[in-house]
Design brief:
The chain is α/β, with parallel strands linked by helices. Helices cover 37% and strands 20% of the residues. Strands 1-4-3-2-5-6 form a six-stranded parallel beta sheet, sandwiched between helices. It has a three-stranded antiparallel beta sheet with strand order 7-8-9. β8 and β9 form a beta hairpin. α9 packs antiparallel against α10. The chain is globular, with a radius of gyration of 19 Å. The chain starts with a strand and ends with a strand. 37% of the residues are buried. The structure holds adenosine monophosphate. Adenosine monophosphate binds next to α2 and β5.
Length: 278
């Protein structure tokens, strides 16, 4: 497994990799969610590259950039065990040198859900992913359904900017009790960790309601809201039933929807989602 830091080293190493090249961009502190993307890439591609970069431009001023968990040595061990060919660990100065002033923005799709709550977040995400795509030049790139809006926004960006890259979205990997795996789960204390299952429980309740025939968007929102209200440690930021393609809030009756939410458990902001009617 080659580990490179500069773009020059990356380009040289990339030239020696077998096609098709699968690419998994991450912010590190890897867990089974990240590794599931790596495994799918490993199965489908001739070689696999992973980037580890905590991208400062996707964090808001009040967010957890400084506290974001990091453990590069552990991450490298996990990636080596998965048979990854190339790991790129660029520095912030490499990605955003002095004088940097070029940004990639996706418009309508980023005005909803996470984009509405985290102004500037997706501008940071699409800018860094475009830069990573340009530098790595993969044939396929793997993203998690856990960050549903991110996957939709990146698919749009990639199509709009003519990247010759197939975007692959992999299922959300969960803990045994349903909590979606996330590097941020490490912030939770024992009581909060128990309370955090409320996201999964409320999404499940709405999926079950949908499967039992409920089609009213507002009723599905209320189903999630009722379960969330039963957890004293949870503070809801948003609950959404939206069109999976446009991400606009649904009204009236739906045939398919992205159910999603952002919930604070203490200071930790957790997101989760499920699709219905797909
Ligand atoms: P991050 O390091 O949080 O930027 O995540 C890197 C990639 O892993 C993104 O495409 C995420 O959507 C994906 N990912 C994170 N958590 C999970 C999970 N629990 N299941 C599946 N994919 C995930």
């Amino acid at each position: 497994m080659r580990i490179v830091e500069s773009i020059l080293e990356l380009r040289t190493a990339r030239g020696q990799l077998e096609s098709p090249l699968g690419f998994v961009p991450t912010m590190g502190f890897l867990h089974e969610g990240h590794l599931s993307l790596v495994r799918q890439a490993r199965q489908e591609c001739g070689s696999v590259a992973v980037s580890i970069f905590v991208n400062p431009t996707q964090f808001g001023p009040q967010e957890d950039l400084a506290a974001y968990p990091r453990d590069l040595e552990r991450d490298l061990g996990l990636l080596k065990a998965e048979g990854v060919d190339l790991v790129w660990t660029p520095t912030t100065a490499t990605m955003y040198p002095d004088g940097y002033q070029t940004w990639v923005s996706v418009e309508e799709l980023t005005q909803h859900l996470e984009g509405e709550q985290r102004p500037g977040h997706f501008r940071g995400v699409t800018t860094i992913v475009a830069k990573l795509f340009n530098a790595v030049g993969p044939d396929r790139a793997y993203f998690g359904q856990k960050d549903a809006q991110q996957a939709t926004v990146i698919r749009r960006m990639s199509a709009d900017l003519d990247f010759p890259i197939q975007i692959v979205v992999c299922p959300t990997v969960r803990e045994a009790d349903g909590l979606a795996k996330s590097s941020r789960n490490t912030y939770l204390n024992e009581a909060q960790r128990k309370a955090a299952t409320v996201l999964f429980r409320s999404l499940n309740a709405a999926v079950q309601a949908f499967e039992s025939g409920e089609r009213k968007a507002q009723t599905l929102r209320e189903t999630m809201s009722t379960v969330l209200a039963g957890e004293p440690l949870a503070e809801v930021q948003y609950i959404s039933v939206a069109d999976p393609d446009t991400l606009e809030e649904s009204s009236g009756e739906i045939t398919r929807a992205l159910l999603s939410m952002a919930v604070f458990i203490g200071k930790t902001r957790l997101i989760d989602n499920m699709l219905v009617g797909e």
